[in-house]
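Appendix B, example 12.
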Amino acid sequence: GWFLPSFMLIALIEMTAAQFDDYCRVQLAAHATASAPDAGAPDRGCWADWKMRMRLGDTASLLTCIVPVFLIAALTDLARSILGEALSPPAVLVATFVALAIIVLALPWWLARWMGVVPFPAGHLREHINELTVKLRMRAIEPMWVASEGRWPGAAIVGWLPRFRKLWIGDALVEQLSSRQLDMVIMHELAHVARKHFMWRMMPIAWAVALVALILTVWPLNEHNAHARTLVSSLLASSVLLVGIGWMAHRCELDADRAACTLAETALTWARENPGSAAREMSTALQTLLSHSPKSSRATWLHPSLAGRLRNL
């Protein structure tokens, strides 16, 4: 009930945008047919556009956020049905940790299915990526292809366990960047692995837990302050968690940009022979991908601004 309106609003917005996409494509096709009668009509309608937008837009982010909530609630209800109404706090904690473990293990697989990720096409680029991981002495990171019809110009390391990590590369990324710029984006993603940024990103959770433990230690519990103590600890821990995740994400992105230049000079001949060229190619790649709109170039919760990243480089 809480989340369904948000989901329906996203679906409606994406449907409206898909209709505009279809209208613009039909108009372009009409002009092309007028000048070249053999150009043919468009072979995809607004429904296909809508499915593509739902698959690659904000729906995945929304579901990623709310699925853990639903799963924790479902497992807690299951524990209550088994243990009765007198559900103990340890049982709630066990249900929560089981739900989080399921999310951690299943989320990469689910995202891959949702976004239509397929094995990377055989060819020079796949071989090149595999050679880079070998030169950098990393465990095999399988490259994967995100076929988005030019809608997803991104790359990401997906998977928490070393033996199951994947390198996702969007088709739009390959279309927009030169070979050297693409090398630097790949180096950036591999730098997240080399610098163990997964462990860095876990630190805000430890900070929040430590804060709760401190509050519970210095604020003795009695019959008058139970609710106040719970409320204060929850608010402070949530604030530390949210601010900490954003701050650490910015630090990791900036560190990955710098580390990517160092890795490039280790694994790429052109970067090793021309000092400073790796940073220049990374800067150009960022400008190509992020400077097309003010929104993309501004800082977000999890990414620093384009200007900040360029200064960092």
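The chain has a mean pLDDT of 85. The radius of gyration is 24 Å.
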